[in-house]
Design a protein that fits this description.
The chain is of the alpha/beta class and 247 residues long. It has a single domain, classed as Rossmann fold, CATH 3.40.50.1820. Helices cover 37% and strands 21% of the residues. The longest helix has 15 residues. It is globular and about 50 Å long. The two termini are 20 Å apart.
Length: 247
């Protein structure tokens, strides 16, 4: 069994330091990069972290202003997040190839990362990822209470305008070529209305168009927090993706 070494530290990316944890495995050259949802720290991945460490080398971190990571006045949109992550990986000497795993707004970030640095990417997993058109289509389909909750959430990490900028940025990414892409989406309606959930499912299916090598998996019994509701299913998807990427 390969020995796993956890390295947690602060790394300067040019003006601020970001917190990251690197779970390194001997003789492993591929690294899974986890990109969290909006306002979430690296603890977000605790439900699957231990099991992932048994078969993979991986990297988790906190974006600026979250957890131990320092804050600055750079934009909090996907374009800036991509540059922050790219600099962090380079400065921390975490070398490609990478398997990118992004949840929710993290899915938007990894999509943009893969379009800019495609040569570094072995595969992508989108976990109930954001879609560029969601703020145009979905809010009118929510209940009034849910619509208020949805818009008011954008105060922890980036404003509503910055989120909309992110959606415009990812909207320019029409293809990821032949990069293997697995779109994973929730099977439970949870906070959605029937109409908003139908729209969300259409968005999820639309994301498969980004790659010529894509597939769509719906996780039954899971809401938006897929890896919390059905951790073993997500672990298995990651394991299968990694196995395919290494062929």
């Amino acid at each position: 069994m390969k020995e796993v070494t956890k390295l947690g530290k602060m790394q300067d990316i040019g003006g601020i330091k970001l917190y990251y944890e690197f779970f390194e495995r001997q003789n492993e050259n591929m690294t899974i990069i986890f990109e969290s949802g909006y306002g979430c720290t690296s603890d977000y991945w605790n439900p699957i972290k231990e099991e992932i460490s048994k078969f993979a080398q991986f990297f988790i971190y906190n974006r600026p202003g979250l957890g131990e990571s320092e804050q600055d006045d750079r934009p909090k949109d996907s374009k800036q997040s991509v540059e922050n992550l790219h600099t962090l990986l380079r400065n921390a000497n975490i070398k490609p190839p990478y398997v990118l795993v992004g949840h929710s707004i993290g899915g938007a970030n990894v999509r943009l990362y893969a379009s800019k640095y495609s040569e570094e990417i072995a595969a992508i997993i989108l976990l109930d990822s954001c879609h560029e058109d969601q703020n145009k289509i979905m809010p009118p389909l929510f209940t009034e209470e849910m619509r208020s909750i949805y818009f008011n959430q954008f105060s922890v990490e980036g404003s509503l305008n910055e989120i909309q900028n992110s959606f415009e940025q990812i909207g320019e990414v029409n293809s990821l070529g032949d990069i293997p892409l697995t779109v994973v989406s929730a099977g439970l309606q949870s906070y959605h209305t029937t109409e908003s959930f139908a729209a969300w499912n259409l968005f999820q299916r639309d994301l498969t168009r980004l790659s010529r090598k894509s597939k769509h998996i719906i996780v039954e019994g899971a809401g938006h927090l897929l890896h919390v509701d059905q951790p073993q299913t997500i672990i298995n998807i990651i394991k299968d993706t990694l196995k395919e990427a290494k062929k």
